[in-house]
Amino acid sequence: MVFASWDLFTDNAYQAALKAGVMDKQQLEPLKDFLETIRPMPAAFEQKWVKRLHPNNLLPGKTKMALAEQIGEDIRQFQKTSGADRLVVIWCGSTETFSSPQPIHQDIKSFEAGLCSNSPDISPSMIYAYAALKLGVPFINGAPHLTVDIPALTNLAVENHIPIAGKDFKSGQTFMKTLLGPGLKLKLLGLNGWFSTNILGNRDGEVLDDPENFKSKEETKSSVLDRCLQPELYPELYKRYYHKVRIEYYPPRGDAKESWDNLDIFGWLGYPMQIKVNFQCRDSILAAPMALDLVLFMDLAQRCPDLAKMGIQEWLSFYFKGPQVAAGLYPEHDVFIQQMKLKNTLRHLRGEDLITHLGLEYYD
Ligand SMILES: NC(=O)c1ccc[n+]([C@@H]2O[C@H](COP(=O)([O-])OP(=O)(O)OC[C@H]3O[C@@H](n4cnc5c(N)ncnc54)[C@H](O)[C@@H]3O)[C@@H](O)[C@H]2O)c1
Fold first, then answer.
1. What separation in Å is there between the alpha carbon of 9 and the centre of ligand 1?
2. CA distance linking residue 362 with residue 364, whole number of Å
3. Residue 95 C-alpha to ligand 1 middle, in angstroms?
4. Ligand 1: which residue has its CA nearest to atom 16?
């Protein structure tokens, strides 16, 4: 695998890794020469989408279409100079401010007109996604905002058989939530409330300190429970729970994020109980291997006509807080069902038996 990136700052990968402080300096040192060769290309950016960062590495470009064309050219150049046979683009950029689908996002003609007229509804991540899809390159969105989850880009992906996936890596607290939620339902334990809070001090935390950026994250973090608990089937247990999610920027912690969850549950005869979860995690140590897995699976998807023609790679929902699905379908959040989808899709591709856990054949 070979790598290239765009970023708002000129720091090369070694400088960026030193600043992020995820890996020890001692562990980075042997990689210094290699990492210094990865210099970010100038970024497509607009301040209103990420107010807390003040960039020094931006692409010039009068229109958003001009920026998309330059990003496309960067991708072509990278393929030429690196000699890579196949490409995947993954958005690991900052969380953009919250936005909802607008008329301009509905079809590719309106979207392209919007790129040319600098529509305020087209965010930088959409510019990268458009540029990648125009070149037939799969695109993954690791952040919570819309990006490829708009009809204009989803249809472009489906029509041209290009894999897309998103949104928002499911790495820490929400992963725990989708482990515990299905467990409560298995035991038919009721839920009165679930309060989740976090402290983190990395650059992601700094961006999410702005309420408009946090709102994007709040949406994906909050959406998972209903699907896991199915209140429509168990109204007396899950119809009235109160769910609150907070993130606080706290610089001393750096990447060593800490999350607390308080669950107010109830059992037989309505007797109340509590569960507390304190996850002292490392944000990037949890997320980075998922990014690598996703890139490899998306590359597999582009080589499998049956997967590529779907556009949206729902079988990868295991990796996301807000799995992207086709219009009219619901996103599956139960991590155990997500894992089964992943395994069975891989088995199906290899022509192997699907996992059913039926077990009757053991006694034949
Ligand atoms: N555990 C995790 O790390 C985790 C989990 C879920 C989701 N995410 C999401 O993944 C994204 C990245 O997280 P991170 O911790 O690596 O953040 P980070 O702040 O360390 O890195 C994001 C980088 O994106 C750059 N950027 C912002 N806008 C850009 C643009 N328009 N073009 C090019 N570069 C741009 C910033 O300069 C920054 O260096 C965030 O949206 C975050 O919410 C991360």
1. 12
2. 6
3. 6
4. 92
List pLDDT tens digits, range 230-273: 999 999 999 999 999 999 999 999 989 999 999 999 999 999 99
In this prediction, residues 167-175 reach a mean pLDDT of: 94
| Same fold yes or no, 6-169+285-333 and 173-280 | no
CATH topology (fold) of 6-169+285-333: Rossmann fold (3.40.50)
pLDDT, residue 303, reads 97
Q: How far does CA 64 lie from the centroid of its chain?
A: 23
* Mutation pick for ligand 1 pocket among 91, 94, 170 (CB with most ligand atoms within 8 Å): 94
Q: Would you kindly state where each structural domain of the chain is located, as residue ranges?
A: 6-169+285-333, 173-280
Confirm or reject CATH 3.30.360.10 for domain 173-280, answering yes or no: yes
Q: Is the peptide bond before 167 cis (omega within 30 degrees of 0)?
A: yes
Report how far residue 41's alpha carbon sits from residue 58's, in angstroms, rounded to the nearest whole number. 8
Backbone phi and psi for residue 267, each to the nearest 5 degrees, phi listed first: -115, -150
pTM over 0.90: yes
